[in-house]
Model the fold of this input.
Amino acid sequence: MLVPSRRRLRLEVWIVLGLSLGQSAVYSVVQLLDKLTRAPLAQGTSTLNRSQSSREYFDLTYQLLDIIFALVPVVLVIYFLTEHRPTGLPAGASSTGTSAFRKLGFNFARPGRDLLQGLGLAAAIGIPSLGLYAAGRALGITTAIIPSALDSYSWTVPVLILSAIRHGIVEEVIVVGYLLDRLGKFGWGMPLAIFTSSMLRGSYHLYQGFGPFIGNAVMGVVFALIYTRTRRVMPLVIAHALLDIVAFVGFSLFGKAIGLG
Done:
C-alpha cells in the first residue's frame, strides 16, 4: 500500500475537520462571543434540536436531511482510513486492504461487550455531567440548555433518537478514531494527540458556555484513553448515543413538565 506523505495527511485532516467538527468549533466560538456581548452568559440559551419548519412534513424532511448530510464526513473518513491495494498489481499479489471499520473497531464484532461498556460509560459520564451543568448554571458560566425544541409529532421521538445516534457516530469516529490515527502518523505523542482531540471536542460545545467546554473536554480525555486501550470506537458511539437519547427524548417528553424548559 502507498503511504501518504505527512503534508497530504495534514491537508486531509483540514478538509475533514473543515467539513465537520472543525467548522462546528469555529461557529461555536463565534456564537459564544455573540452571547457574551449581548448579556451575562447565564441568561443565554442553547437549543440543540430546533424545529426548521412550521409545516410538519417539511420539518421532518429537514431533520432527516440534516442527519444524513452530517454523516457524509464520516463516510469520507472511512474511505481515507481504508487501506486500498495499489492499482496495477496482480489480483493475488497482496491483500485487498484493511477495512476502516475493523481498524476503528466500528463494527458489530463483539456486540455484547460493546453494549455493556457503552452502558457503563454512559452512566459514568452522565451523572457527573448533571452536576457539572448545575454548577455551571450556579456560577453563571453555562447557558440554559434546551435539548429539544421540536414540536410534538408522531415522528419526534424517532428523529431525536436518530439525531443522538448521528452525534455519537460523527463525534467518536472523527474526533477519537480518525484524529488519533492521523495525529499519530504526524509523529505526535499520544498525550499531545489526546489533548488536541479533547480540546476540539470541548471547543465545538463552547456555544453552550464554559461548563460544557470543560465537561466535554474531560469526557474527550476519558474516551480517548479508553480507545487507546481497546482500539474500539463502538462502545464510545453507544455511550455517546445513549447520553444524547436520554437528554433529547427525556426533555422532549418530560422537560416542560418538570420545569427544565
